[in-house]
Amino acid sequence: MASLDNHILMALGHYRSLVSQHFQCPVLAYAGPIHPAVLSAYVVAVEAIVAQSKSTDVQGRICILLATPGGVVEAVEKMVEVTRHHFTEVLFVVPTAAMSAGTIFCMSGDKIFMDYTSSLGPIDPQVPLENGNLVPALGYIDKVNELIEKSANNKLTDAELLMLQRLDLATLRRYEQARDLSVSLLKQWLVKYKFKDWATHSITNPGAPVTQIEKEQRAEQIAKDLSDNNRWHSHGRMIGIQTLTDGLKLKIEDYTNDSVLRQNLRIYSELLAEHAERQQSAFMLHYQ
C-alpha cells in the first residue's frame, strides 16, 4: 500500500507541475472544509512555497486550486491575510466546487478560473455548534425572521411559539455577525483585488472610466445577491459560470475550451480527493 501511496504522490507532483507551468507560478492545492484547525498547516504551506519561489524567477504570484464545501469565514479571513502578506497576485482555480466560505475565499483573488462544470455557492457562512458540527447561519436567521413575522400577524402556532421562546439570543447574534462579516469581507476584497484593474466599462457606456463608487456599488450588489437565501433556496446550491457572469455580472476566466488544462486540472483534483480519502484526512494541502 505504501508503494501505491508513493505513486499517487508522484502523480500529484507531476500534475501540480503541469498546472504550475501553465499559470507560470507556484501552485497550492487545498481540498476539504475550511476550519480554524487548518490554519497552522496553511501557514506552513504558504511559507514553504515562498521559500521555494526565492530560488526561481517567478515571485509575487500564486495559484490556489480550491475544492471545498465551505467552512468558517473567520478562518478564510486569516488565510487571506497570510496569502496577501507574501503575494501581490493571487489566482484561484476551481475545477469542481468552492462553496460558501470557499466562494468568499475566491473573491479575494485577482482572477477566478472556472470551466462549465465548476461551481461557486451562496455565501452562507457556517458556524460551529458546541459539539463542533458546522451549521449554515442564514437558514437559522431566515427561520427566526419567518417566525417573528408570523408572530406580528398573529399567525404563530403553539409549536412555533415554543420554538421562539427557546431561542438562544446569543446564538442568533453570533449567526448574524457571521453573516455580516461574510458580506463585509466579500465587498472589501472584490474592490481591493478583483476590481483593481477594472478601469473602463465594457457593456454599459463602453470606454467610460469606472469610478471607485461604481466598484463599491457592484461589489455590494454581488454580495447582496450571493447572500440572498430567497434567491438560491439552498445552502448547497451550485452556481455555475453562466449564472455568475450573466446573472451576477462577475468576471470569470473560462478555461472550458482549453482541453489540455481542463484534463490536467481534472486529474489533479480527482487524485487529491482520492488521496485525502485514502489517508482518512479531513483536508488536503498539496504544494511540493
TrEMBL record:
Note the SUPFAM superfamilies from the entry.
ClpP/crotonase
Highest taxon, organism lineage: Bacteria
What Pfam families does the entry give? SDH_protease (PF01972)
What protein name does the entry list?
Serine dehydrogenasease
Specify the species. Pseudomonas quebecensis
